[in-house]
């Protein structure tokens, strides 16, 4: 995964990624569900040094100890997830990409926290 770009709903915040992806997956944790008002959130992780943000500056919210979630101050679109456990990485939302065809989602995180009414019929590894 190289040369990816994306933006928030109003296009006030844009980003470009140049460099390899580290991982990509669907997160089912309650915190991500509440932060996005969605039953599942899909992230891809890259080295922080490989991401350039343009336009407006992200506003950040400390959603739990050591976790910062970046969002557009104008439209509220969630844009990033950052954790002190992985200071050299940043997680970005696959849904914010202009073209996500280069991202290979290959796992589920926090499978035990998934909502019961959403069927995920795939053979991806499911981690708790």
UniProtKB/TrEMBL annotation:
Record-linked InterPro entries:
CENP-V/GFA (IPR006913), Mss4-like_sf (IPR011057)
The answer to whether keyword Cell cycle applies is no
Q: Which Pfam families match?
A: GFA
Record keywords: Lyase, Metal-binding, Zinc
Molecular function terms from GO: carbon-sulfur lyase activity; metal ion binding
Which family would the database say this protein is a member of? Belongs to the Gfa family.
* Protein's name according to its UniProt entry: CENP-V/GFA domain-containing protein
